Amino acid sequence: MTIQFNDETFRDDYSFYNSDRAIKRFPFPFHEDSYMYSVNMEQHRGGPVDSIYEKRFDVDEHYLSEMRDRAMVLADDPLRCQSLPHMTLAGWDLLELIMVSKSEDYPDLFELHRDGNKWRWINKPMGIDDTFTFLDEATLPYGPMEYITRQAQGDFAVLDQRDDNLWMDAGMITTQADWSLDFDLGMNFFEWHAPVPLAHEKGIFIRALKFLLNIQQGAPARRLNWTMTVNPLLDTSPENYHKWGVQKTEIAPENLGSKQHLRVELQTFFRLPRSNALVFPIRCYLCSFQDLMTVPKWGRRLHRVIRDLPEELATYKGFIDNRPMMLDYLSKFDDGQPTSDGIWPDLETEPALKK
Amino acid sequence: MSKFDFPTSILSRPVYGTLEPRPGAAHLFIADAHGAEAILDVAGVDTSLMAKAHVIYLPNGEGYGDALRALKPAKYYEGPSYPASVQRIRKAFADAKMGLQVYLAGTEGLIGQAQNEAMQAGIPHTAIQTEHRGSTARRMQCVHCKGITENVETDPFVCAHCGLNLFVRDHYSRRLAAYQGVCIDAEDPGNVPAAKGIYE
Predict the structure, then answer these.
(1) What are the Cα distances from residue A127, in Å, to A123, A143, A187?
(2) Best of A201, A206, A239, A242 to disrupt the B interface by mutation (most B CBs within 10 Å)?
(3) pLDDT by residue (tens digit) across B117-175?
(4) What are the boundaries of each domain within chain B?
(5) Interchain proximity B11–A200, CB inside 8 Å
């Protein structure tokens, strides 16, 4: 289908919005009425038609506006994109993976023409038509990782694999849930996850690392993660926290439905062929509470999940202070009826809200 | 000075051991202030170490210089500050041959920065011995302006560069040789709790 790209902002006047289509395909992250950390990994081999799982790299109505926001973040702070010297080959691997995937999955939007190492890349939505020599950095305006991730939604962490560990040695990180690439660059899997509460004790990271170390070429994996964000702000970086943190206090009962957003990350994992690095795209989807409440199942479930979430997690995810107000709002959408299993909206089969 | 027992913390926070003699072609010791005590201790365990040792010591007002010199290390240097000594430290790593043993002792700031130089010279951090002695002050990076504030003893503290009030995290970067400082009053500007010692 042809995508209508929104003209919207993720800062200042926050004109971001989700169409009805975007709401229905929103990756609601709770498959049951409660939540606790788990590795929750599955193969990334497509999914229901028009779902965010269908393509290897989902392109949606926010594409052009997200890329505009990324360019603004990078202009303000170039340290959001860094690559240690040994990661350049992984950057080329990533460029190839994205160009091949997008040109195959969205032939009406992207084209890749290859003649040996002479490559021509056409990105129609962004108006790009570049010819370059594969593996020759001098022929691109940026390094290969930066070049292609300025044209792909979501953050990208590129992980080196050595000593039975993964190392955060490169990345394009501008839509992050409050972590700093510049600070975490060069850390191993356990170190960059060190601040996460509860999950270490549960052995989550040991199991997750074992799984990730064994991901093979052509067999990517995926999982969902989530947090909360006030206003549709993509750049919730620690670097700018002193600027955006105060927005959390602007939540009031009258505006909560439109200002409070569920922030969901579709995390995917691909083995890269030449470098044996692992690329970890972290794609951020935002949806306001009021839009989520248009799906009766999600209204019921979100209330139950937020109500029963352990305090440590609500603190870590940064919404402990606003939780009572969120629950006041959400409780109106929970009539106590049971919910169906799984994350899908099930609009045809789930009952409407009982008043 | 007795050794400080750091509370158990998150996995990115460095842990320090006790220097012990290891067989090696050469021995490089870098220490500041009370870190000299760790050198004196390990030199006492194996009296043959010093004949092949290069000792770089930053007294920072502590009077261990004579005691270290009396160990008769093959090379001895005393520097007035870390920045004044860093070129010499880099040269020591650049000149290093296979079989060098590295021993770092003293404050976390000294250990972290010297370890970083060793890593840049290609020595894996896991191959470097470290022992904490003396001040528990931290080297902090402001996540907002990226400026480093040395010798931070209180939480919160004021960034020496941008002036924001920062709280002290245990999250640590070997690449930056610093802990992370994050604005403490971002969600309630002006509401800054009274500063207290980091381990109080």
Answers:
(1) 6, 19, 37
(2) A242
(3) 999 999 999 999 999 999 999 999 999 999 999 999 999 999 999 999 999 999 999 99
(4) 26-132, 138-197
(5) yes
